Amino acid sequence: MSPGLFVVVAVAGGAGSVCRLVLDGVIRSRIRSDLPWGTITLNLTGSFVLGVITGLAVDAVVSDSVRMVVGTGFLGGYTTFSTASVETVRLLQQRRLLAGGLNGFGVLAGATGAAALGLWLGGFT
Prior knowledge:
The chain has one domain (3-121). It has five helices and no strands. The chain has helices at residues 3-30, 37-58, 64-78, 81-93, 97-121. By secondary structure, it is mostly helical. The longest helix is centred in the N-terminal third of the chain and has 28 residues, at 3-30. Helices cover 82% and strands 0% of the residues. One of its GO terms (biological process) is cellular detoxification of fluoride. Its main location: membrane. Fluoride-specific ion channel. Important for reducing fluoride concentration in the cell, thus reducing its toxicity.
């Protein structure tokens, strides 16, 4: 990886983090629920877009540089599986077992499904 590409990936990561902060705040201000819909939305959409980018990269529709900038940089900052894990544990500690189970297993299954759909739409066969 060239120094210039490294800088672009880092800047894209920062931009993804800012988008995550803004989108999570907007969703939290509009939806009151036991489930952390902001984090769920971020992880599902990020997994989907990463699937699309990966599918396109496998078929050489997009370059490895684009895959690194969008996938590693932007989506690395945009998605937040560590926060999803903390929120799941917090729900379980509060004895909200159904919400915690849905959050933990639902995000895992949903993100995997979203990534698979993205791969398929991106042309990965």
